[in-house]
Design goal:
This protein is an alpha/beta fold. It is 38% helix and 14% strand. The model is unreliable at 296-300 (pLDDT under 50).
């Protein structure tokens, strides 16, 4: 993953590093166990103080995203990493446990067949406590799959009676706390966040004199969008930042050449050619959701 720094930005260098590495981990651009550049290397590369880099790494460590290994350096945390799965071994273990629990092989076969014949999900349930973020995820999934998901906060999820035919969905950084409370018989598709390079891919670069409006209800979308644009070497002085929860949020937007927004906010600008929507879910994860809606043809 390429790391960059904009010294002329209103966003402190430390926060730029924290946000980029956080996004890199969430989008799988940085893999669990991957070694990060040393504080000295980053400080020398960007001509910044080593304490700035150290402070960023400490914040990431406190967030559980990286870990320090004495004498080796800083590494992406392995806390949520799952070991590689050998499907044959996995099935043998499943079969042996079933038989040991008193089920016949026919019982197990009949249950597998029933699960496979249940068909694709009739509903997605998005588990996310941040309401504004959840609304964006729901709209992105609806746009990609044609199914309008329901949403629930994590705090209420464990008490919820999940409807039959529901596919549970959450961001990958929720895996550790969500897996233990999944209802029996239900799985969860954990989504990766879109990476900075993917968000910029195929986008026409604005000219130096273009004013760019960044518009969203979600504060973090505004922060991420700034990072995307700074990565494209756009001067932050050309940004017009608006949160739609503010009463006068439309003020000055008519002067913008481009409007960067999320899927929910895009509905506020119907047929506006200036709109550029930055998806928050990676295309790989979105394709996984699309595949889950395709019926399984069982021929056994």
């Amino acid at each position: 993953m390429k790391i960059w720094v904009s010294k002329n930005s209103e966003v402190p260098v430390r926060d730029q590093l924290v946000a980029q590495i956080t996004l890199g981990i969430a989008s799988s651009d940085l893999a669990a166990g991957e070694r990060l550049p040393s504080t000295r290397e980053l400080a020398r590369r960007f001509h910044i103080h080593q304490n700035t880099v150290s402070s960023a790494y400490r914040q990431l460590s406190e967030n559980g995203l990286v870990e320090f290994k004495k004498g080796s350096g800083v590494f992406v945390s392995n806390g949520s990493e799952l070991p590689p799965i050998d499907i044959a071994k996995l099935f043998d273990e499943f079969l042996n446990k079933g038989v040991a629990a008193g089920y016949s092989k026919k019982d197990i076969y009949d249950h597998i067949r029933l699960v496979l014949e249940t068909g694709p999900p009739s509903q997605f349930l998005v588990v996310e406590s941040d309401i504004a973020f959840r609304e964006i995820l729901i709209e992105e999934i609806r746009d990609a799959t044609g199914i309008t998901p329901e949403g629930v906060a994590f705090e209420k999820f464990s008490k919820l009676s999940v409807k039959k035919g529901t596919q549970i969905v959450a961001m990958s950084d929720e895996a550790a706390k969500l897996r233990p409370v999944l209802p029996k018989g239900y799985s969860c598709i954990f989504l990766n966040a879109n990476s900075v390079p993917n968000s910029l891919s195929g986008k026409e670069r604005p000219s130096e004199n273009d004013l760019i409006a960044i518009v969203s209800r979600w504060d973090k979308f505004v922060s991420f969008a700034k990072l995307f644009l700074l990565a494209a070497k756009i001067d932050s002085e050309m940004f017009i930042v608006r949160l739609t929860r503010d009463q006068d949020w439309r003020k000055g937007i008519d002067q913008a050449s481009l409007i960067i927004c999320d899927f929910v906010t895009a509905s506020q600008f119907p047929d506006d050619p200036r709109i550029r929507v930055f998806p928050l879910i990676s295309e790989g994860s979105m394709e996984q959701l699309r595949r889950s809606t395709v019926p399984v043809v069982l021929d056994i």
